[in-house]
Amino acid sequence: MYGRGAGDMKAGLAANLFAFDAITAAGFSPAAPIHLQSVVEEESTGNGALSALLRGYTGDAVLIPEPEENALVRTNVGVIWFTVRVEGKPSHVREMSKGFNAFDATNDVIADLRTLEADWNGQKDRYPGFEDVDHPINFNVGEISGGDWPSSVPSWCEISVRAAIYPGIDPEQAWEEVQEHVRHASIARRGQDSRLPRLERTGLFAAGYRLDEGGEAEAVLGSAHRDVFGQPLRSFSTPGYLDGRVYTNYGSMPTLTYGPRSLDIHAFDERVHIESVRNITKTIALFIAEWCGLKPLK
Asked: pLDDT tens for residues 244-281?
């Protein structure tokens, strides 16, 4: 199935609902309470899941059907969103050398961030689960704007960045390191200039998480997965952000992030594998039946 959001993550939401409907269609209802949640802001703050948790929606286990290739996420990164603004000095292009080109200076800042990104990736062996991940830390420059007119040296430029951090790293510590790295690199080029880059947090500011192995909820999901797929449940580490960190880090609840196979999420031709969605739905239904127990409908 093709379409923006088909994989991430409308298919997972549909799997949750149809798994619940399948139990009802079989003449049963769960013997324990279930909260079905669909929250906002997972991609930019995590505040939707956090708000639900703060309102008291808790459980003995959480299952989040993200598009995860029919597998369970063991570990995922934290994320910091921020902007970098560089002020230039405009001048006419005939006297370009008298100005200060904010675009060129921003290119230098991006190069500085790439240096820090490479340094953090070089530390991956210190963090369990990421040793074999090719490039766990990504600094993505997702937006750029600036300038006023083609015939003027650009007087400003601003970029929006998403930076990953390893689980176990305090976001405050990482944020300080980002700021200091950019500041020191800029000073090394220009000295104590009034036009040093300004960094500001703008959204996600979240630690990563790790799901401990051997939990009871994972065992139940693994059994259901084996019944449906005919093979053991695989787990892996992902360099993406997940709301699982909210329930794990703040709610102390075992959180199973597990969902269907998809391709090109957040991109052109995003799509999800229909048979995978069917099988994930069956697995979730079996998980509910075993974890919650069943009772006949009246």
From this structure: 999 999 999 999 999 999 999 999 999 999 999 999 99
- Tell me if residue 86 falls in helix, strand or coil: strand
Which neighbouring-strand residues pair with 82?
161, 201
* Whole-prediction pTM: 0.92
Q: Please list, in sequence order, all residues whose beta carbon lies within 8 angstroms of the beta carbon of residue 294, skipping any fewer than 6 positions away.
A: 23, 28, 29, 30, 31
Q: Give the chain's end-to-end CA distance (angstroms, integer).
A: 37
Q: Alpha carbon 231 to chain centroid distance? A: 27
| CB-CB contact of 156 with 89 (8 Å) | no
Tokens standing for 154? 């650009």
Question: Is residue 96 reached through a cis peptide bond, with omega within 30 degrees of 0 on the bond before it?
Answer: no
The three-state (H, E, C) secondary structure of 189-216, written as one string: HHCCCCCCCEEEEEEEEECCEECCCCCH
Q: Is 152 helix (H, G, I), strand (E, B) or coil?
A: strand
Helix (H, G, I), strand (E, B) or coil at 99: coil
Q: What would the two tokens of residue 290 be?
A: 């075993």
Strands (DSSP E) contained in the chain are: 28-30, 62-64, 72-76, 78-87, 139-146, 156-165, 198-206, 209-210, 235-238, 255-257, 262-263, 271-272, 294-296
- Report the Cα 271 to chain-centroid distance in Å: 19
Q: What span, in angstroms and rounded, lies between the C-alpha atoms of 282 and 162? A: 35
User: Following DSSP, what letter does each residue of 243-260 receive, concatenated?
Assistant: THHHHHHTT---EEEB--
* Closest alpha carbon to 270 in 278, 280, 260, 279: 260
